[in-house]
Amino acid sequence: MEDIKVGQIVGRASYDCDVMFRIHRIKGNEVELHGEEIRLIADAPLDDLIILEDEDRKERKKKDKLKEESCYHLFRQERKLIREKNEFDMTAGYTKKNNHFEMPGKVLHIDGDPIYLKKCTQVYDKLGVPVYGVHLAEKEISTQVASLVEMIRPDLLVITGHDAYSSSKGNLDDLKAYRHSKHFADAVKEARKVVPYMDHLMIFAGACQSHFQSILKSGANFASSPERVNIHALDPVYLVSKISMTPFNERIGMWEILKTTISGEKGLGGLESYGSLRRGFPNYSPQVKEE
């Protein structure tokens, strides 16, 4: 077998290489794996790993890219409709040139995976959502989230990384059977000590197969994973971006929020919410007079 190294892209033979993983850590004969496109963490013995060929990886990435682009275009279409409605409201239906400006809700995105964090912040920028990104290991988020919320003062908070359910450690209701769900729930509780009201700080927390109910009970507006399925790396981005780009006085049902995500209602869920975008008038741009 070829030498296995940290950072290589592999699959698990025992699972027919159904998921692309990135090798995160090697300890003896055991390897810690992080999903390359989904927020899953897994352990595997060295002899169960297969290094994926370039062609296989390219084909998988191509299929994933199509899913991402589909979500992006749907989001842009939704955004266009909302903007047209906003312009109509701000001008009272008149056809004169619109002169208002918009302030989308600000996102604090805390991610246990630095590679995913970079990918997510690129998509936020592409969507026009203001974001402050922080990489912290899942176990450390609860110790620093309060100070980060106080410093950044976001409208929306994302707490994510990698997670997994292990049936060998307990049943679906047992929080101890999940790799990082307790850490996510604890982080939400700490954030709620700073901003207790759900409409003042909207929180998404969770990753693949996370304990949905416990995270919601800890104070999150949205969480994963209702059916303990894997979620895509970009799902948290599209979920909170929908809130960020919707006017603060408009209520959004969960279906409206989830339809621009990749995983949908099996992987994500939560409570109906209000948007966090605010509109202003006029859009003033000072003109520099020539001497």
From TrEMBL:
Classification via InterPro entries: Peptidase_U57
Name under which the protein is recorded: Sporulation peptidase YabG
